[in-house]
C-alpha cells in the first residue's frame, strides 16, 4: 500500500465548538471548504465567519489551509494566517475574531 494514501486518509478535522457541522470531517482529495453557507463542507453558522471563510486542499500526502479572503481572519495555533499553511498533526484552526 502507498504511504501517501495512508497518511491522507487519516487526516481528520475535529470541531471544538458545538455549532460546527459536521463535528468530524475526514479530509481527502476533494477541496474542503469552510464557512457559514450551506454549500461548505464544514459549516460554522456564526456572524464572525465569512460565507466562504477558508479552504483546505490536498498537496501530495499533506494538506494546505488557505484563508479565502475572510473578513475576520483564519488562525493556526493562535497565529493569523498571512498565506497558505501546510497543516501538521494537532494544529488548531481558528476562524473569525
Topology:
Layout: H1 3-9, E1 12-14, E2 24-26, E3 32-35, E4 42-43, E5 54-59, E6 62-67, E7 74-76, E8 79-80, E9 85-86, E10 93-95
Summarize the structure.
It contains one helix and ten strands. It has one helix at residues 3-9, and strands at 12-14, 24-26, 32-35, 42-43, 54-59, 62-67, 74-76, 79-80, 85-86, 93-95. The radius of gyration is 13 Å and the shape is globular.
What key attributes describe this structure?
97 residues, mainly beta, five-stranded mixed beta sheet, three-stranded antiparallel beta sheet, globular
Order of helices and strands: HEEEEEEEEEE
Mean pLDDT across all residues, rounded? 89
| Spatial separation of the terminal alpha carbons | 42 Å
Strand content: 35-45%
| Count of DSSP strands | 10
Describe the strand arrangement of the main beta sheet, using strand numbers.
4-3-5-6-9
What are the low-pLDDT stretches, counting only 5+ consecutive residues below 50?
1-8
Tell the overall outline: globular
Explain this structure to me?
The protein has 97 residues and is mostly beta strands. The protein is 7% helix and 35% strand. The chain is built from one helix and ten strands. It has one helix at residues 3-9, and strands spanning 12-14, 24-26, 32-35, 42-43, 54-59, 62-67, 74-76, 79-80, 85-86, 93-95. A five-stranded mixed β-sheet has the order 4-3-5-6-9. It has a three-stranded antiparallel β-sheet with strand order 8-7-10, with no helix packed on it. A two-stranded antiparallel sheet has the order 1-2. It is globular and about 35 Å long.
Amino acid at each position: 500500500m502507498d504511504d501517501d494514501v495512508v497518511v491522507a486518509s487519516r487526516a481528520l478535522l475535529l470541531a471544538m465548538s458545538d455549532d460546527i457541522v459536521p463535528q468530524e470531517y475526514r479530509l481527502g482529495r476533494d477541496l474542503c471548504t469552510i464557512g457559514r453557507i450551506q454549500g461548505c463542507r464544514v459549516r460554522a453558522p456564526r456572524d464572525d465567519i465569512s460565507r466562504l471563510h477558508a479552504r483546505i486542499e490536498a498537496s501530495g500526502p499533506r494538506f494546505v489551509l488557505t484563508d479565502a479572503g475572510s473578513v475576520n481572519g483564519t488562525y493556526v495555533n493562535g497565529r493569523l494566517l498571512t498565506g497558505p499553511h501546510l497543516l501538521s498533526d494537532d494544529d488548531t484552526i481558528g476562524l473569525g475574531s
